[in-house]
Write a structure and sequence with these properties.
Number of helices: 2
Shape: flat
Strand content: 25-35%
Largest sheet: 3 strands, parallel
Structural class: alpha/beta
Oligomer: single chain
Strand order of the largest sheet: 2-1-3
Radius of gyration: 11 Å
Number of strands: 3
Distance between the termini: 26 Å
């Protein structure tokens, strides 16, 4: 199974994304901040990361 890290400060958006992506063979891991996402990645990089470009605690590329 593939892992997707979805990073967004909106719990509603994370919930919708998890519902859409979780229906396939994808494990969706959620983070609400860039710091939390960094900690998750330190434990093992996901196959794909979707990040909200408007997060205030990190700069997205």
């Amino acid at each position: 199974m593939k892992r997707c890290l979805f990073v967004d400060d909106s719990s509603v958006i994370r919930k919708v994304a998890k519902r859409i992506l979780g229906g396939s063979d994808i494990i969706v891991v959620e983070a609400s901040t860039g710091v939390e996402a960094t900690e998750i990645c330190a434990d093992g990089m996901p196959d794909v990361i979707v990040i909200d470009g408007g997060l205030t605690d990190v700069q997205a590329v």
